Amino acid sequence: MIPGVVAHLWQSTVFGGTAWFAALALRTNRAQVRYGVWFTASAKFLIPFAWLVRLGTLLPHSVSAPAVRTEWVAALQGFEPPLTTPMAGAGAAATANHGYLAAAAVVLWACGFAAVAICWLLRWRRVYALRNSARAVTVPTGLRIPVPVMSAPHLIEPGVFGILRPVLLLPEGICERLTGSQLDAILAHELCHIRRRDSLTAALHMAAQAIFWFHPLTWWIGSRLVEEREQACDEEVLRLGCKPGVYAESILTVCRLYLSSPLECVSGVTGADLKRRIEAIMRNRSVRGLTLARKVALAGAGVAALVVPVVVGFLNAPAMRAQDDGDWQRKAGGKMAFEVASVKLDTGAFRSPNFPLDPGDAYGPVGGRFSADFSLQTYISFAYKLSLIPSQMDHMLAHLPRWVATDRYAIDARAAGTPTKDQMRLMMQSLLADRVKLAAHFETHVGPAYAMVLAKAGKTGSQLRPHSEGAPCEAAAPAATGPPREGEVFPAVCDVYMAMRYPGKLLKVGSRNTTTALLAGSLPGLGRLELPVVDQTGLDGRYDFWIEFAPEPNRAGPPNADAPAPVEGPAFLDALREQLGLKLESTKAPLRVLVIDKLERPSEN
Question: In the structure, what pLDDT confidence band is assigned to residue 430 with cuts at 50, 70 and 90?
């Protein structure tokens, strides 16, 4: 949550700075235009770009996202325990400190928000009490007033109170204290506020100020809004034919006799810098209309601010939908539960699960039985089909207690019939909701990632070739499910990721008739990378590949005496460059992450 708030704040700050430059460029134009620019900057605080990006992902998309193939993970699990990422002591302490700082920040924000909200609530009650004590009156004017006019027994300036059903509040006796022309000028000013819906826009900005009370830009924008809205009304009153001297005198008379409104959303007549306003009224200079070029520029900037984030979300929708938590659950049949289940804290030796708890589809016949011995983190990852990428795991664990990643629980359960692996996931979701009171939801965040690109433009490595250059899939022997045959470089069969590792040998992984997007999706688990990988090679079509490298030892998870000994050979990233002609570069990408809303220690039985 914190990175998203920080991103929203700097984006809104840059947007506000851009609005300042735009208002400066429009200083010779009508104040109403500048008011629109400043209100757009205010609205940006209430509308994060991340919401617009997410909206883009919900639009219909003609290209469906390919599912990331991860069958090779299961093959690796035959040699080592499933990949896990429990936090070390130092990491847990850092996470705890981060949690305390986040909690302190939330408490500080809540105190500031409450102080601002209470202050405005008290002021609003004062005006509301005036509204209740006011009585309807008829004003001697030739102007048509579209809202009720009420007279309040208090020395408060004329103003528009209310958003959905506004009323024009006038102080008692104002008709006797102003001449007919002065009263018409004041009423014309208030009618401008009514037509412009200034009470509504002011209330929206007050909401932005209350939420982002700590950001000085919101308060500065607020003063600009008041200044421009009053100047816009002044310009409109003069345009309608009111004499500058009469209008200026009427404003000064109101300032001398009455108190200003306590709330910005009660649009009055005495706001902004009074001296500057009177000088501008008396000059009564003509303001220029917007040229066609400026109209196009403003319209283009406004459309871009809304459309660009939506387009970004739309273009990245396949990558984000590939991680969608809903589609596979619907296909698997919805909510399910085990017939019986046992959950016990395990402090003994680690025992392997009866099938891989990875996000792939590798799954043998288990007769409806589930047996595993992992941390709660692993069970959550299995239940929601999460990729075991450290950065995404860290995001999920950031505000959770340490035992979620360190304490192991032995779970033995049985389901009726022969459920699929995805149905087992749904049953695990129900078990977690029952035993640990787990409640969670998915959010989309734009975060760090790796971009897989060509190391040399237009050229791939010797062990990454177009599938069309090899033997067709139909020519492969159906029983050939192992590594490349004698004299061949690539796997014998298509559409399956092969992973082979023998004691003292390099790890060999390959596939035929695959895509670079599927290859990119497999790299985080294959190379034990900290970040997800997105394909930016620009390569279309199908490819065959075969890569050999010395894997890093598994530093996470329970000790495993049977794990293969380290061997000499190229590191994963070196092999990726030398054999496949690919490299990884830092980038940003939209990712769906699981956010834990509620969690308790498991109830054992």
Answer: very high
Name the nearest CA neighbour of 533 among 513, 517, 544. Answer: 517
Of 234, 96, 249, residue with least CA distance to 178:
249
C-alpha span between 358 and 523 (Å, rounded): 14
- 386 within some domain: no
- For residue 149, what are the CA distances in angstroms to 133, 251, 264? 13, 19, 20
Convert the pLDDT of each residue in 551-601 to its tens digit. Answer: 776 544 444 445 555 678 899 999 999 999 999 999 888 777 788 888 898
Name the residue among 275, 257, 276 with its Cα closest to residue 186.
257
- SS3 label, residue 448: strand
How many Å apart are CA 561 and CA 80, to the nearest integer?
A: 10
**3-class SS of residue 91:** helix
502 in a structural domain = yes
Model confidence pTM above 0.90: no
- Which of 271, 294, 321 lies at the terminal end of a domain, its last residue? 271
Q: What is the pLDDT of residues 332-361, one digit of tens each?
A: 888 899 999 999 998 888 888 888 887 766
Q: Does some domain include residue 388? A: no
- Give the DSSP per-residue string, 392-410: HHHHHHTTS-THHHH-EEE
CA distance 435 to 410: 13
Q: What is the residue range of 118's domain?
A: 106-200+230-271
Distance, C-alpha 102 to centroid of its chain: 18
Please give the tally of structural domains in the chain: 2
Residue 295 one-letter amino acid: K
